[in-house]
Amino acid sequence: MSKPPRIAILGFSLESNGFAPVATKADFEQSYLLAGEALAEDLRAPHPRAGGTLTGFRAAMDASGDWEMVPILVAATSPSGPVDQAFFDETLAQMRTRLAAALPLDGVYIAEHGAASATVDADPDGTLFAMAREVAGAEVPVIATLDLHANVSQRMVDETDALIAFLTNPHVDQRERGAEAAAVMREMLGGMRTAKALVRIPLMPPTITLLTGAGEGRPYGDLIRYGQTRVGGAVLNVSICAGFFLTDSSKGGMSITVTTRGDEVAAGALANELATRAWGERHRYVPNLVSIEEATRRMVAVNGDASLPALCFADVADNPGGGGRGNTTELLQSFLAAGVRRVALGIFNDPVLASEAHRRGEGAKFRATLNRDETHALSKKLDAEVEVVKLSDGKLIGRRGANNGRTLTLGRSARVRIGGADGIDVVVISIRQQMTDPAILEHFGIDIRKLRGLIVKSRGHFRAGFDEFFGNDRILEVDAPGLATQGLHRLPYKNIPRPIYPLDADTQWQSKEVA
């Protein structure tokens, strides 16, 4: 009887904002940094902390036959600046040592984001893939899953047998993509070999234009859905990654990766066809934002007319999911000055204020300074009288969207109220992350259906969590300051390939002829 295949699991998940503070070892330790048995235990837990691709891969491998999980190391944190090179080197060395000690292996699965940069290495994802290939061997299947905001390099494609990117934004298909990776792994264990093609185009859309839901104004979703109609037969996978425009990377821009069952010509032809289609629709990737003043006017109107529906205001430029600090105060300040009522803000990253609320206790009222110890220029201070409504250690289970069933860890947290009983409730956290799940507000006793307004520190992932409360027609994306600004022309780019659309309106591109 043959032995079950031994599959190594590892990953380094970081979306790098080239204009944000460096991501450090402490950031990963606070978020997710597990190796060996600790990693295996989390992947098999009822409510794991791990991302959905990891648990989806594990569950699909379990369901499809015997196998031996070889847990190596997974590091992940909220989007930040480039990763500290010393920490990345340390992590890569640990992965190499653990992989080498685990040989021989039958396969390697890598749970990656794909838009990382380091303070020295411009393509740490490619560096990690190359290390895994070198250690595991040329004949061992190496399969990676990616976020659809990945900046895909030729090296990333060359060093793997298949790249499998998310199909949805918000990313509600992470488990499915992990399961797809498991299915490809099983097929490769049976002898199938892949052929791949990568085409990159000089199109770098702002992330706010990359929602994939059906309907008018969703060019990215239309493109991905068309690509999926071509999957089948020789075509194993189509991954269309829009890239992450804030990375300021030499591999920035949209990429199309086609993986086939050994048909190199078919892979190249389809990748070029899809790239040509994407380029022809480049003018559709245009953001539609409202000013802080307009958002405030709309909120005041809702407060003054009970027949108007409640509104959700996305503070997109301060999205921690894009490297924002999660603590800009301009929109909150405008709402406070206008005297708006029955509003909540989720979630505000301020460990100092959270600690002070815990020290003073529930029911305490005091003069607080938001961002008291912050030094970043965009994280402006705000003084306000607050009341501590509820305290928490910040541990809860997500119930909607990509975090459904996952253990969420916010750190020491508090619900504080500004402006009295009908004022603004602010959920203050200590571990920076974006607002994705209504369970966070509900954990602090906030009845979302009774709100007249909600401010979310998120770019788009909140939509999958809050669609039971706010339809698209009741969501306003606000053009407030932040490190994740959607205004490309405001950013001091140094590394992206130029010309690139829409920064350079006259950019030209034409697909290569396929032999």
Shape descriptor reads globular
Task: For the largest sheet, list the strands in their spatial order.
Answer: 12-13-16-17-11-18-10-19
Strand content: 15-25%
The average pLDDT score comes to 96
The span between the termini is 46 Å
Which class do the helix and strand fractions yield? alpha/beta
Helical element count? 14
Low-confidence stretches: none
Helix content: 25-40%
Radius of gyration: 23 Å
Structure summary, number of beta strands: 19
What is the makeup of the main sheet? 8 strands, mixed
Task: Give the structure's gist in a few sentences.
The protein is α/β, with parallel strands linked by helices and 515 residues long. It is built from 14 helices and 19 strands.
Record keyword descriptors for this entry.
8-stranded mixed sheet; 6-stranded mixed sheet; 14 helices; globular
Note down, in words, how this protein is organized.
The protein is built from 14 helices and 19 strands. The strands form 4 sheets. An 8-stranded mixed sheet has the order 12-13-16-17-11-18-10-19. Helix 4 runs parallel beside helix 5. The protein is globular and about 65 Å long.
Secondary structure layout:
Blueprint: E1 6-13, H1 25-31, E2 32-35, H2 36-43, H3 52-64, E3 68-76, H4 85-102, E4 107-111, H5 124-136, E5 142-146, H6 154-158, E6 162-165, H7 174-189, E7 195-201, H8 219-228, E8 235-241, E9 254-260, H9 264-280, H10 292-304, E10 311-314, H11 330-338, E11 343-349, H12 351-360, E12 365-370, E13 382-392, E14 395-397, E15 407-409, E16 413-418, E17 424-429, H13 438-443, E18 453-456, H14 462-466, E19 475-477
Parallel strand pairs: 1-3, 1-4, 4-5, 5-6, 10-18, 10-19, 11-17, 11-18
Antiparallel strand pairs: 2-3, 7-9, 8-9, 12-13, 13-16, 14-15, 16-17
